[in-house]
Write a structure and sequence with these properties.
Layout lengths: L8 H17 L4 E3 H19 L3 E6 L8 E3 L2 H12 L8 E6 L5 E7 L12 H12 L6 E5 L3 E7 L2
Parallel strand pairs: 2-4
Antiparallel strand pairs: 1-3, 4-5, 5-7, 6-7
Helix pairs in contact: 1-2, 2-3
Length: 158
């Protein structure tokens, strides 16, 4: 982008630095929903540039929940999984939604269009996230639902 003088390159570099800054500077194990959503803004910006018009993202979160907590980078992990495990193309755009079923949780949902993977997923990211909730003393912190139309993961806020 920079070499081609793309007008979006300056914003891309700024968002990329936001992502790396958060990763390198944050030693916390938990974070507020507000902070995690701010980090996601930078991350999704990078992903949307990469996938052009094939990736759609929508957030609908109550202001009341913004000071609630969750494990750091947990929503980023779920967004990354959406993109990693699903087809993202102009013919099959991927729509990712963040919303709340209730005040004490947040859900990441995407239209289900799985990639044909040569190697089966180890689910390591989800297993680690479940363990992080368990270590925080929160039972059933991660709930996964799937059908032919969507895949969604709900995380408890605390």
């Amino acid at each position: 982008m920079v070499r081609q003088n793309d007008p979006k390159s300056e914003e891309y570099v700024l968002k990329l630095s936001d992502v790396y800054r958060q990763i390198l500077q944050n030693e916390a194990q938990i974070i507020t929903l507000k902070e995690e959503l701010a980090f996601l803004d930078a991350y999704i910006y990078l992903m949307k540039l990469r996938h052009d018009d094939a990736l759609f993202y929508d957030v609908d979160v109550s202001d009341e929940s913004l000071n609630d907590h969750l494990p750091i980078f947990s929503l980023q992990l779920l967004l990354e999984n959406c993109i990693k495990h699903n087809i993202v193309s102009a013919n099959k755009p991927l729509t990712i939604r963040l919303f709340q079923k209730d005040k004490s949780s947040i859900t990441v949902s995407n239209n289900f269009q799985p990639k044909k993977m040569g190697v089966e997923s180890t689910r390591l990211g989800i297993k680690n996230l479940e363990q992080r909730y368990a270590l925080s003393g929160i039972k059933d912190g991660v709930l996964i639902e799937q059908n032919a139309e969507y895949y969604q993961t709900t995380l408890k806020l605390f």
